[in-house]
Amino acid sequence: xxxxxxxxxxxxxxxxSCQTEGKSPKTIDWYFGFLTRFQRFLNENxxxxxxxxxxxxxxxxxxxxxxxxxxxxxxCQPLSNPTVQGYVRTLKAFFxxxxxxxxxxxxxxxxxxxxxxxxxxxxxxxxxxxxxxAELCHRSNGQGxxxxxxxMLLLDSGIRVSELIGISLDDVNLSEGCIRIRKxxxxxxxxxxIGSMVQKLLWKYINHYRPRPITDRISKVFLxxxxxxxxxxxxxxxxxxxGRQAGINGMRCSPHVFRHTFARNYLLNGGDIFSLQKxxxxxxxxxxxxxxxxxxxxxxxxxxxxSPVDNLAENSSLRRVARFSMQQTNRV
Length: 332
Known about the structure:
This protein is mostly helical and 332 residues long. The protein is built from 15 helices and three strands. Strands 1-2-3 form a three-stranded antiparallel β-sheet. Helix 5 (127-139) runs antiparallel to helix 6 (144-157), helix 6 packs antiparallel against helix 8 (196-209) and helix 11 crosses helix 12 (286-294). It is globular.
């Protein structure tokens, strides 16, 4: 039994369990990579690799190592706060599974919190920057209209680039103004609404500008000039190129920035976080609340413009209330 309780064997068992539970391949690879690094940390520091002997002290040492010493493999940069959080969440999932499967008697992760993330500014595109990108599409030869449609769809729906490249013709319902996202994160389908302008752009692209597919089996909406489905890297490269040409400096020009921009504008235009959660495809409100906190200053400015009481005070019957409030303020 002791051999079975070695962490390298149980990591493989956890991986198989995740597969049978229907977790996405990307999530499973993410878990496996993080747990393999934890195993390597144990071996390099001569800590026990028998799961029953791994205690909070060892785990806290690993978290401290991630925060102060660990580097990303490709760039050799310190790990970001979200990456460290990902490691801790992975360990929580792994040790919870060990407890459920009776491999351990108590969970050493139970009282170890996920480190708090440092609040940071989320990049979003201003209206002026979006206009510059749109103007470049108008001036582009060949695929300009396709690129304009891609940019406006990202801006109007907040979908991920992996979801965008997975859209097939059958997924687009222009009469209802929505798109079915089949290849969503976590293998969860959802329906995303789109506005009238994007409906018109999509109709015109599909009927007039979409290249002929290289084979009849290709049904993806967005194609290259050679009739092949666009790739994630192809869209990212196109946006980076447009960003340079548009003089957008100090921030990335990427699909994810369009996702942030959609969330910001949706909230500023009066959208609620519950419908935003459904549109973005988040499984919990935690991520959406992050947007709400990050854009709270913008929302405060919006309230100053659209305050219900301030606007009611414009009514002649309520002007006495406004004058009374001013008198009371002056007395204070």
